[in-house]
Specification:
The complex is a heterodimer. By secondary structure, chain A is of the alpha/beta class. Chain A has helices at 57-75, 80-96, 98-109, 113-134, 162-175, 190-201, 216-224, 237-247, 272-284, 304-316, 336-351, 383-386, 402-409, 425-434, 467-471; strands at residues 21-22, 25-26, 29-30, 38-41, 48-52, 152-156, 179-183, 209-211, 230-234, 253-257, 263-266, 296-300, 355-358, 373-376, 393-399, 417-421, 439-442, 461-462. In chain A, 39% of the residues lie in helices and 15% in strands. Chain A is globular and about 65 Å long. Chain B is of the alpha/beta class. The chains are: A alpha/beta, B alpha/beta.
């Protein structure tokens, strides 16, 4: 065994309490959806995990009706102090069932257990805790006295952080007095349906939360339903634009959290080893399935070679493989379809003349895996510098002056996040000012907290999640 | 005995701090509320919209990075200039909207006061909408509001001055820049406002005012790739959905507006300011 080899330390998959069948959750009950059932698979092994009943368009109507009834009959009338207690209960139950949720999330999504266990699930619980406290303090949120909820929220979330995105959507919606119909992603419905069990355990009134597994057509039906007052979507910019078109001309309030192509900018005075850790965390966290991933590394020319050498060495030590192994750094790509997209974009990088370096780590034969890859000699015109890859692929560009770094960083229609690495405080603040991005991480990357607003500029969407700013999305103000 | 012949004015557009004619060479007659001819106004075209957006983009860097104190002073200066041309505005509002002089006076006064109200917001927006975020970890995290960019504004069709001021001033107060299409049938107060803006300290291009038809120009603003937000107030309600669909092509921020023109004399709130602001969250580790 070499110095960086470890014995396998797999988490027990029995903790997931995996069931053979899961069903949609409507009006407080698990029901038979009238859509075609789907089989959700473990992307690390390609084995079928469970069969999941899906909703049909008529089920969307049933769920929206249940949400409307719960809104007018119970939830919007309930004092904020009582709503708060339900949210606190949910937060506690997520914590109590955190191991089960983490294992289930890793099985269904392919992300390493250390990330689902230490990041996704605790942060999801934190979102319910944070928003619980707002439920009876909305008069103090800065939107005038007695701000009103909107009504029924239709929410569509992606597969990269299934439980966390659910928490980002449901916690503020419920805290502000709205009821919810949520569609989880087709490939990752399981933790949302366990969350539905948690709603039952918390004795949340029926209809306040409804969960409809299904494909894009169910999302479209939900977004287009005439009795939905609020639409919240996290996902790709293309789908976001389609949704914005779909709700055009209606009174629905819309918030979008879309794609990104974040610049992670390293200056010559940065602490290089720390920067390398930040770069790795920025692009290889969650297999790069992160809308705010630092997918464009901008390095000051004078240190580019040194940094790249350190980076390649560090990346070569990342362990890729079984998501349930506690030693695993990089898990599985979520689906065969996503793996094909990543491969296509990487081939375009080769074809357009960028220099590809791929980690020599062993790649399992079964399952959807992609070894961490770093492209150097990348030009701004290349597809790998412009398009969101949504995988463990980093594109490296160089710059000479801070102004050039700003120009290159802002040379994108996206504007979700950015990173700055320098020891000079005044430069951090200047750069943070210049960058057209909703989140700027300085000497760190990929930090999230329910108290800190998150969201994009330009084609990365509009509206914020988290903090006081995030409440606006669910209030009639 | 002959009466003095008045000096007839030729009205032009206001783009980039200058007063060009419409590229199209088109003009249209402006009448008062009783149909009496008042003047010819420029009939702006698609190319004028593009020129105005380009001027607004060019001006954005300077205006958005000016200090809030400076922006407040500039906007207050505009209010001073408005006050100085009060009588002209009263006459034009009265003619345009067909209201009595007394009513026109109160509308002009309200417009000046509203401009002052927004001038006072520039250096308070960050305090009221920004935040220090108490994150659970060794990080300093703060959130600051920032202007969204170039805003396309279809000004109200009925309220020729108070409505116009109510939709333009919040854009400028946030640090964004504006391309405004004025009321089609009541453009004279907008033209006079552009003369006020030109002679105040507002940098050229920060506000651009086009006279013309929202029905013709709206879709060019809504679909323009370099416009970041859209206020469809002056569009026909039946045209709003198409504008919103056009705006989706670049994920524009679209202001939600009622079908009928609101009562502009009611107190303003922060809703319009908020729509033209992004929230930027910055994180930095704490440590020694």
């Amino acid at each position: 065994m070499g110095i960086f080899e470890y014995a396998p330390a797999p988490e027990s998959r029995d903790l997931a309490n995996l069931k053979p069948h899961y069903r949609p959750f409507v009006n407080g009950e698990f029901v038979d959806g009238s859509g075609e059932p789907l089989k959700t698979i473990n992307p690390a092994t390609e084995e079928v995990l469970a069969e999941v009943g899906t909703a049909s368009v008529s089920d969307v109507d049933t769920a929206v009706k249940a949400a409307r009834k719960a809104y007018t009959g119970v939830w919007s009338k309930m004092p904020g102090s009582e709503r708060a207690k339900y949210l606190f209960r949910i937060a506690r139950l997520i914590q109590e069932r955190s191991r089960e949720l983490a294992v289930l999330e890793s099985l269904d999504n392919g992300k390493p257990i250390k990330e689902s266990r230490d990041s996704d699930v605790p942060t999801a619980a934190a979102h319910f805790f944070y928003h619980a406290g707002w439920a009876d303090k909305l008069d103090y949120a800065g939107y005038g006295p007695n701000p009103r909820p909107l009504g029924v929220a239709g929410q569509v979330i992606p597969w990269n952080f299934p439980l966390l995105m659910l928490a980002w959507k449901i916690a503020p919606a419920l805290a502000t007095g709205n009821t919810v119909v949520l569609k989880p992603a087709e490939t990752t419905p399981l933790t949302a349906l366990v969350f539905a069990e948690i709603c039952q355990q918390a004795e949340l009134p029926p209809g306040v939360v409804n969960i409809l597994p299904g494909a894009g057509d169910i999302g479209a039906a939900l977004v287009g339903h005439g009795d939905v007052n609020k639409v919240a979507f996290t996902g790709s910019t293309d789908v976001g634009k389609a949704i914005q078109r779909q709700v055009a001309g209606t009174s629905k309030k819309l918030t979008l959290e879309l794609g990104g192509k974040a610049a992670n900018i390293v200056f010559d005075d940065a602490a290089l080893d720390q920067a390398v850790e930040g770069i790795v965390n920025g692009i290889f966290f969650n297999q790069g399935h992160v809308c705010c991933a630092g997918s464009r590394l901008l390095v000051q020319e004078s240190i580019a070679e040194e940094l790249l050498e350190k980076l390649r060495y560090r990346v070569s030590t990342l362990r890729l493989g079984d998501p349930l192994d506690k030693n695993t750094d990089i898990g599985a790509i979520n689906s065969a379809e996503q793996l094909a997209k990543i491969k296509g974009l990487v081939e375009s990088g080769d074809a357009e003349g960028a220099q590809r370096w791929t980690s020599p780590c062993p790649v399992p034969e079964r399952g959807f895996f992609f070894a961490p890859t770093v492209f150097s000699d990348v030009q701004q015109s290349m597809r790998i510098a412009r398009e969101e890859i949504f995988g463990p692929v980093l594109s490296v560009l160089t710059f000479r002056t801070p102004d050039e770094a700003v120009t290159k960083a802002n040379n994108t229609p996206y504007g979700l996040s950015a990173g700055i690495w320098t020891e000079k405080g005044s430069r951090i603040l200047w750069m943070a000012n210049q960058l057209r991005a909703g989140v700027v991480w300085a000497n760190t990357f990929n930090r999230f907290d329910p108290a800190a607003p998150f969201g994009g500029y330009q084609e990365s969407g509009f509206g914020r999640e988290g903090g006081r700013a995030g409440l606006e999305a669910y209030l009639d103000v | 005995m002959s009466d003095r012949i008045s000096v007839a004015k030729t009205y032009k557009l206001y783009i980039g701090g200058k007063f060009p004619r419409s590229e199209s060479g088109r003009v249209y007659p402006v009448t008062d509320s009783k149909g009496k001819f008042l003047a010819n106004a420029s009939h702006a075209s698609r190319k004028d919209v593009r020129d105005a957006v380009s001027a607004a983009r060019k001006a954005f860097g300077g205006w958005s990075s000016a200090t809030a104190y400076n922006r407040g002073q500039v906007l207050y200066r505009v209010a001073e200039m408005l006050e100085g041309r009060r009588e002209q505005f009263v006459a034009e509002v009265s003619a345009s909207e067909g209201v009595a002089a007394k009513k026109a006076q109160s509308l002009v006064d309200a417009s000046i006061d509203r401009w002052v109200w927004y001038a006072g917001w520039t250096d308070k927006i960050a305090t009221v909408l920004g935040a220090a975020n108490p994150v659970a970890g060794p990080y300093f995290s703060f959130t600051v509001p920032e202007p969204t960019g170039v805003v396309g504004v279809l000004a109200p069709q009925q309220s020729s001055l108070l409505g116009l001021v109510s939709v333009l001033a919040p854009v400028l107060a946030t640090g964004s820049t504006a391309v405004v299409v004025s009321s089609a049938d009541r453009p004279l107060p907008a033209i006079t406002l552009s003369e006020v803006l030109a002679t105040s300290d507002l940098p050229g291009g920060v506000a651009n005012i086009l006279t013309g038809r929202a029905s013709e120009l709206g879709s060019w603003l809504a679909s323009h790739g370099d416009v970041n937000a859209l206020d469809p107030t002056g569009a026909e309600p039946s045209a709003r959905a198409d504008l919103a669909r056009d705006a989706a092509g670049t994920v524009k921020r679209v202001l939600t507006v009622p079908d009928t023109e609101p009562d502009w004399t009611a107190d303003a709130d922060m809703a319009r300011l908020r729509r033209y602001l992004e929230a930027k969250t910055v994180w930095h580790p704490l440590g020694v």
